């Protein structure tokens, strides 16, 4: 029997009333940007060019085409204090979190971040060709910084040393991604526990795939986040369990094997969450 507890049961009219047309257009716009970004990488990787510009990318390109709604949907309600951690397939989440933060921050705050990051090296490149307001400049800044990082360039957000699977931008709440399958789970719980113990605002989202459920550290992280001690031994003013959400991107495969009915010990991934 299918688990239906978290099924989406609304409709567009209700969403327009709740969020407004402008917010829904922003959600759609962010999704389109992420889809085009990933499609561009796919074109460069498979054909050696994009839009008539040739480029030979020798590094990895683990894409998230088709997962744009999950990336943008999780980030739209987040605040600047909220963190996301990701996997080897997290370009979309990085962009979505940064876009969400850009929407929230004031222009002077965005300028301060862009000017101070790596002494403004990334900003100097982007602002040469930019025409528009500070918010759109910040979006171009993020797109350029992420792409330069994927291509291993010095102006990348991590000076090209992290590459595709380790790109992140901490000033806007996008924390380090992890090339190890499920590797972000324990780190995310640690970050959430730090927030709780130190009474810091915000929550943490751990983005990993369905294949990671075959990794022991992921189960360890889930159990650590759900321990009874937070409720029974800690003072109530601490706030209870670490503020973390495990967000599993269920694309039905882990490497070359189907996770449901083949390589894992579950049939419906959502049932795992229902039992914790």
Automatic annotation (TrEMBL):
<keyword id="KW-0786">Thiamine pyrophosphate</keyword>
<dbReference type="Pfam" id="PF00676">
    <property type="entry name" value="E1_dh"/>
</dbReference>
<dbReference type="GO" id="GO:0006086">
    <property type="term" value="P:pyruvate decarboxylation to acetyl-CoA"/>
</dbReference>
<dbReference type="InterPro" id="IPR001017">
    <property type="entry name" value="DH_E1"/>
</dbReference>
<keyword id="KW-0560">Oxidoreductase</keyword>
<feature type="domain" description="Dehydrogenase E1 component">
    <location>
        <begin position="129"/>
        <end position="265"/>
    </location>
</feature>
<protein>
    <recommendedName>
        <fullName>Dehydrogenase E1 component domain-containing protein</fullName>
    </recommendedName>
</protein>
<dbReference type="InterPro" id="IPR050642">
    <property type="entry name" value="PDH_E1_Alpha_Subunit"/>
</dbReference>
<dbReference type="GO" id="GO:0004739">
    <property type="term" value="F:pyruvate dehydrogenase (acetyl-transferring) activity"/>
</dbReference>
<dbReference type="InterPro" id="IPR029061">
    <property type="entry name" value="THDP-binding"/>
</dbReference>
């Amino acid at each position: 029997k299918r688990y239906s507890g978290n099924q989406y049961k609304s409709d567009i009219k209700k969403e327009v009333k709740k969020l407004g047309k402008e917010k829904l257009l922003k959600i759609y716009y962010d999704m389109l940007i992420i889809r085009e970004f990933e499609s561009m990488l796919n074109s460069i990787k498979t054909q050696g060019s994009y839009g008539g510009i040739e480029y030979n990318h020798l590094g990895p390109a683990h894409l998230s085409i088709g997962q744009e709604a999950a990336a943008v949907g999780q980030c739209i309600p987040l605040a600047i204090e909220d963190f996301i951690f990701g996997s080897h397939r997290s370009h979309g989440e990085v962009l979505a979190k940064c876009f969400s933060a850009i929407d929230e921050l004031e222009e002077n705050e965005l300028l301060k971040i862009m000017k101070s990051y790596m002494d403004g090296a990334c900003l100097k490149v982007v602002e040469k060709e930019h025409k528009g307001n500070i918010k759109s400049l910040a979006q171009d800044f993020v797109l350029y910084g992420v792409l330069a990082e994927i291509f291993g360039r010095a102006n990348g957000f991590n000076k090209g040393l992290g590459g595709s699977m380790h790109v992140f931008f901490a000033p806007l709440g996008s924390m380090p991604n992890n090339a190890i399958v499920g590797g972000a789970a324990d780190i995310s719980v640690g970050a959430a526990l730090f927030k709780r113990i130190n009474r810091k605002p915000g929550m943490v989202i751990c983005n990993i795939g369905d294949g990671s459920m075959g990794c022991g550290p992921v189960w360890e992280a889930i159990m650590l986040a759900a321990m009874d001690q937070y409720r029974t031994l800690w003072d109530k003013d601490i706030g209870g369990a670490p503020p973390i959400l495990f967000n599993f991107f269920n694309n039905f495969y882990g490497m070359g094997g189907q996770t449901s009915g083949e390589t894992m010990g579950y049939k419906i991934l959502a049932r795992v969450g229902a039992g914790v």
